[in-house]
């Protein structure tokens, strides 16, 4: 089982949309996939159109890491058919914000790792959608992760956010998790007709080098439409959707295979 945290220390870059795109690629590949919604906004839970009939969520899991609680917090998503390997989701909840402390204890940081150990044999891939901050929830997700993929857009504030995230990853390796690696930086919402975006993209390539993952994801309504309809991009009609799906196939392969320190 590989555990990947999807992170950005800046909001509004399409982090959840990219999480869903990577999940769609894993779904198309037939990987047994679990998506964990660590963001109190719970957008990825809404997009996967699922709800726990038991009222359990990731908040419940961080309060009690027993296998029985974990199993009840994990439910199948709507992405399923007769011959599919379903994507599962550990439901998000606004109440999980109680765990988003600026200085969590080491015992608190290990909670998600402990919970995942109870279901490790059931999944090939776990994707954790993190909140856009470096408080307790993101640190807990990183402690449980094998790698972190950083989401950014070609803008000034994203450049500084990527730099902060890379520094935070170095600190987490020293503090909690020596195995934690950087999977790379995915550039999202790129507009090739924007001089500012072209300038910032080149700047990011110069600053972060091999950390930048190709292909770059253009800004497109198609991805927003499939997300809003709770349909994986790999099953959305049209040539644009097929192109985006192929992009996410390539990005998933790089996130899972290419080690970037």
UniProtKB/TrEMBL annotation:
<dbReference type="InterPro" id="IPR027417">
    <property type="entry name" value="P-loop_NTPase"/>
</dbReference>
<feature type="domain" description="AAA">
    <location>
        <begin position="1"/>
        <end position="180"/>
    </location>
</feature>
<dbReference type="InterPro" id="IPR025669">
    <property type="entry name" value="AAA_dom"/>
</dbReference>
<dbReference type="Pfam" id="PF13614">
    <property type="entry name" value="AAA_31"/>
</dbReference>
<dbReference type="InterPro" id="IPR050678">
    <property type="entry name" value="DNA_Partitioning_ATPase"/>
</dbReference>
<protein>
    <submittedName>
        <fullName>Unannotated protein</fullName>
    </submittedName>
</protein>
């Amino acid at each position: 089982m590989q555990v990947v945290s999807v992170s950005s220390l800046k909001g509004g870059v399409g982090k959840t949309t990219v999480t869903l795109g990577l999940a769609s690629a894993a779904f198309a590949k037939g990987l047994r996939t679990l998506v964990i919604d660590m963001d109190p906004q719970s957008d990825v839970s809404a997009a996967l159109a699922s709800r726990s009939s038991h009222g359990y969520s990731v908040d419940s899991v961080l309060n009690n890491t027993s296998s029985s609680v974990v199993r009840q917090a994990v439910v199948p998503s709507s992405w399923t058919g007769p011959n599919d390997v379903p994507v599962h989701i550990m439901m998000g909840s606004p109440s999980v914000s109680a765990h988003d402390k600026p200085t969590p204890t080491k015992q608190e940081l290990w909670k998600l790792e402990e919970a995942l150990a109870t279901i490790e044999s059931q999944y090939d891939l776990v994707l954790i959608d993190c909140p856009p901050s470096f408080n307790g929830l993101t640190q807990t997700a990183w402690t449980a992760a094998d790698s972190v993929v950083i989401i950014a857009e070609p803008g000034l504030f994203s450049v500084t956010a990527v730099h902060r995230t890379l520094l935070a990853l170095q600190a987490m390796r020293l503090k909690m998790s020596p195995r934690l690696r950087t999977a790379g930086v995915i550039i999202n919402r790129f507009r090739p007709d924007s001089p500012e975006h072209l300038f910032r993209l080149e700047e990011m390539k110069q600053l972060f080098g091999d950390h930048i993952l190709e292909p770059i994801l253009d800004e497109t309504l198609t991805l927003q439409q499939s997300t809003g309809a709770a349909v994986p991009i790999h099953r959305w009609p049209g040539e644009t959707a097929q192109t985006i799906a192929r992009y996410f196939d390539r990005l998933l392969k790089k996130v899972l295979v290419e080690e970037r320190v």
